[in-house]
Amino acid sequence: MVTVLLTDVPVDIDRDAARRAAAEELSDPKYGDARPNILQQIGQWLGEQLEKLLNGLSSVVPGGIFGLLLILALLIVLVVVVRLRTGKIARAASAGRAVFGATRKSADDYRRSAAEAASAGRYDDAVRDRFRAVVRALEERALLDARSGRTADEAAAEAGVLLPNVAAELRQGARLFDDVHYGGRDGTEAAYRALTELDERCRRERPVAMAAS
Prior knowledge:
Among the domains are: 61-96; 107-212, no CATH class. It is mainly alpha-helical and 213 residues long. It has helices spanning 2-8, 15-26, 29-34, 38-58, 64-86, 88-96, 107-119, 123-140, 152-162, 167-181, 189-204, 208-212. The chain is 73% helix and 0% strand. It is built from 12 helices and no strands. It starts with a helix and ends with a helix.
């Protein structure tokens, strides 16, 4: 029986027969099922390239792969911070804290409405309108351009360059405005009087460029 089985097994096979046998074997559906599809092959290749890149970078970064991950995390945080400070989010937040709304009144109109509110004990409105009178008066003198969306801090910083003698008071006035208008704090008579004095001082001050000429 052994002799019969051995004689049935071909000992020598030519090249064409071997190629046909291999093709027939590989055409079996089980090989097609085991082979990864094109997306899996691409994903595998990308994973291998990323692994090579990370391994290469980690060899020159202190701490190896953990140091590299830390650096990447810090870069992501930096990008987020920059976007928050300069991107659309920052611009939206800035516009939301603007001194003026959609319309502007004259500086004298703001002064009158502030005085009326103060007389009635409505110091929230008095503080808001008195600071608006300060900023609007600076715009009317062309010390500030009538730009929409300007915040109180921006107005104080820009005006303080031309009126350095009241720069500190302008910053304080901006804080009083923001505290009441956006911070939810109650306006006070003292805050209203401080802004009234700031308004008067700004009206008397001459800008440094004009004084130098």
